[in-house]
Amino acid sequence: MRTLLIMGPGGSGRxxxxxxxxLTAARSGTRTLxxxxxxxxxxxxxxxxxxxxxxxxxxxxxTAWRPDPAQGFRDGLAALQDRAATALDLLGAARLDPEELTxxxxxxxxxxxxxxxxxxxxxxxxxxxxDLPPAPAALALLALPEQLRRCLRRLLPPERQAARALRPVLxxxxxxxxxxxxxxxxxxxxxxxxxxxxxxxxxRNTVVRLVAEPGPAGTDAVRATTLGLALRxxxxxxxxxxxxxxxxxxxxSWLAGPLAQQRKALAEWQDGYDVHAVPHLGRDPRGTDxxxxxTAPAVNPDTAPVEWPVTDALAEDGxxxxxxxxxxxxxxxxxxxxxxxxxxxxxxxxxxxxxxxxALRRCTVAGAALRDGRLSVRFTPDPRLWPRGR
Length: 390
Description:
- It is a single chain.
- This protein is of the alpha/beta class.
- It has helices spanning 14-27, 42-47, 69-83, 85-91, 107-122, 135-155, 167-174, 181-202, 216-232, 256-269, 287-293, 314-317; strands at residues 2-7, 32-36, 56-59, 62-65, 127-131, 206-212, 236-244, 275-279, 310-313, 319-325, 334-339, 342-347, 350-355, 363-371, 374-381.
């Protein structure tokens, strides 16, 4: 299944373009699922058909789904109470009724990740179009599975689980309670769910389509979002320049200024993106007729994945070089820290902890350079760890 993540700044028409893209794919014969994340039914307003927590058919080959984070939160907490029933009864704790629960912050993000996993496992569609939240929140959402899994592994390392028979003995020797089997089992379930969502995001068939209005604010948003996506290793399939003004606008019109800014932004974008201009309809698109008039581009099946290759320059310079494409990165805003077998990479407001390739784990960091949007980190073999004769 192909997964297309629609991203852009707030107010750029991201939801409308997600609906138009899904409609275009469905009418070409592709079984398409359109997944929305907004609490309000902006997706249904664009489609002209209400959407909600149950997948609903919009027309042939097109299904829309907007998961309910509140219901998912209630169901999850109810299941947790059932699993901890014995402990709650011993403590005399009163259970919470689902009706009195209000979703905590992050419930919406977790609901969307679960929906991604469910849609991928169902294999009922050929294309999944995801209308993500505004760009900053969307980038945080894309980082969530990897970050949560790393926290779980640090707090409850699976390899440190003691045998069930040894737990009471170890507890008495240590003088502190040992983590229960149920706690490890719960962590394992969470890790499995997060791993499934992470696999969808890391899949070679998952790409991003950016949406922005051509202008100064849109240009800044696209530059920042591209850098955040590059750090996640997600390729940009296309850039939809939304609400493009007609070129025959009279020179004495008040639109002449915005049109000049639009031309400048489009010229800059065309140097680095596959740009598709989406015309301004002169009104807010509503319903499938308006969505079809937007002429959303078809999904590009040949988008190249983002590669982080290692170059062997041992014979020439005695180093291995790890290349990290970071378009839009600024040298003064970059930071690298080696921590064991991991590298902490910070680029502007974005940060990621990545595992080193196996060959680089036996090396020490010798330096780094940023050139033409590519960060090259040099590693020299550690003689204490590097095999002799290499």
